[in-house]
Specification:
- The structure holds 2 protein chains of 2 kinds.
- By secondary structure, chain A is mainly α.
- Helix content of chain A is 64%, strand content 2%.
- Chain A has 9 helices and 2 strands.
- In chain A, a hairpin with a 2-residue loop joins strand 1 (160-161) and strand 2.
- In chain A, helix 1 (7-16) runs parallel beside helix 7 (128-158).
- The longest helix of chain B has 30 residues, at 35-64.
- Chain B is globular and about 70 Å long.
- The chains are: A mainly alpha, B mainly alpha.
Chain lengths: 209, 202
């Protein structure tokens, strides 16, 4: 059996590409746009999200047989909230500058629909092994969108990548200018719209109307 | 008074919680397909934000903030790391309570608003409002004005979007652009319009 045919791989690749949580399922865009002015913040946000979604999927999946059905949402939220508090405090303690820049958006991972959706829809009914792959796949799908938007905005908005200048000075001398609009909110909406278009076109997702 | 008015105008327009801070996008995309539902959800968001932001202000400043427990003789206690968990619990409890109150006292309001209230508990705009209130160090009165203004701004955006999407249904768009993609692009254009209010000072 080839690697790409295994259930494990499919569980990972589905949300990472064809069923991308942001572009296709339209979940979790709140935080996805606000932190994309720079690649640095987008990367940290992706890591935080990967940690929370993978651990939440794992924990909920391990406990799935002992969680009573009618209070499962509360249990899931409690697990997610504890992980987010952990992440938030960790960033505050070791990367204070970064946590200032991410402002309230680390805390808002709690209300990110992707995580609750995955724990409720997948981890509650699957083995830990698959739940972790599903969590990682969703995090990869989320992160790829976040990083691509951040790449475009930082490159065209301030001529930098990860804070390093990449546009040569000669360009500026020849009259090139950074696009200020890229640093503002509207650009994020438009870029994500165009990317959703591109992805839907390439992945050939069925239209739901 | 002028400060409060300008805070209100700012939270409705230039600092619109949806168009400038991207909060509440999930339900924005899903609900803006229908104008009437958008109006209902908009009112529910205004209501819940106006109640929960000041309530969380009281809880934060009398229980959680550093040295907030001085009145109980516990000067060294700093519970502010608990704020995320406490805020989300307060919001969920408030939403549930408001739903029960409306159900008890006004059947017509419940029919219009009731189904949206559970959705709101997980709307990022509500939690975001409370977290912004802490981060920007508002006073109590300011937090009331900010909560109300943020709600009004959110409603304005979703109602405008729902009205625009009714027209877009008849547009002949290329494959892949329809639905989510064009909604985001139009939202971007709308955000540009709202940003023009940035320069206005009262």
């Amino acid at each position: 059996m080839k690697l790409t045919r295994t259930k494990t791989f499919k569980t990972f690749a589905g949300p990472a590409w064809t069923n991308n949580p942001i572009n296709v399922q339209m979940l979790g865009i709140c935080s996805a746009l606000a932190v994309t002015i720079q690649l640095n913040t987008a990367l940290v946000m992706t890591l935080a999200m990967t940690f929370v979604i993978t651990m939440a999927s794992l924990i909920v999946s391990v406990m799935r047989k002992i969680i009573p059905g009618n209070i499962r949402i509360i249990v899931e939220l409690a697990v997610i909230a504890s992980l987010v508090v952990l992440t938030d405090e960790f960033l505050r303690a070791y990367y204070y500058e970064m946590s200032r820049m991410l402002s309230i958006f680390v805390g808002l991972i709690i209300t990110n629909c992707i995580i609750l959706g995955r724990t409720e829809g997948f981890a509650m009914s699957n083995t830990p092994h698959l739940a972790v792959m599903d969590g990682l796949g969703n995090a990869a799908g989320y992160g790829s969108v976040l990083l691509s938007v951040a790449f475009i905005r930082e490159l065209f908005g301030s001529g930098k990548i990860f804070g390093y200048d990449v546009i040569p000075q000669s360009f500026y001398d020849a009259g090139y200018e950074n696009m200020g609009i890229m640093l503002l909110a509207p650009a994020a909406f438009i870029i994500i719209g165009l990317m959703a278009w591109l992805q839907k076109y390439l992945a050939g997702v069925e239209d739901e109307g | 008074m002028v400060d409060l008015l300008s805070l209100f105008m700012n939270s409705v327009f230039a600092g619109n919680i949806l168009l400038a801070y991207f909060l509440g996008m999930c339900s924005f995309v899903a609900i803006s397909k229908n104008l009437n539902t958008a109006i209902g959800l908009g009112f529910a968001v205004i209501f819940v934000l106006t109640v929960t932001v000041p309530l969380n202000w009281l809880i934060f400043h009398f229980l959680l903030a550093p040295e907030a427990l001085a009145w109980a003789g516990l000067e060294d206690v700093n519970l502010s790391f608990l704020r995320l968990v406490v805020f989300i619990c307060v919001i969920a409890a408030m939403v549930q309570g408001i739903e029960m109150l409306i159900d008890r006292f006004s059947a017509s309001l419940y029919a219009g608003l009731g189904i949206f209230l559970p959705l709101i508990a997980v709307n990022c705009a509500i939690l975001g409002g409370s977290l912004f209130m802490v981060e920007r160090e508002y006073t109590f009165i300011e937090s009331v004005v900010f909560g109300f203004g943020a709600g009004v701004g959110w409603m304005l955006a979703i109602v405008a979007m729902a009205a625009a999407r009714i027209r877009m249904r008849y547009a002949d768009l290329p494959y892949g652009l329809n639905g989510f993609a064009i909604t985001m692009i139009v939202t971007g254009l709308m955000a540009m319009g709202f940003m023009l209010f940035t320069g206005i000072s009262l």
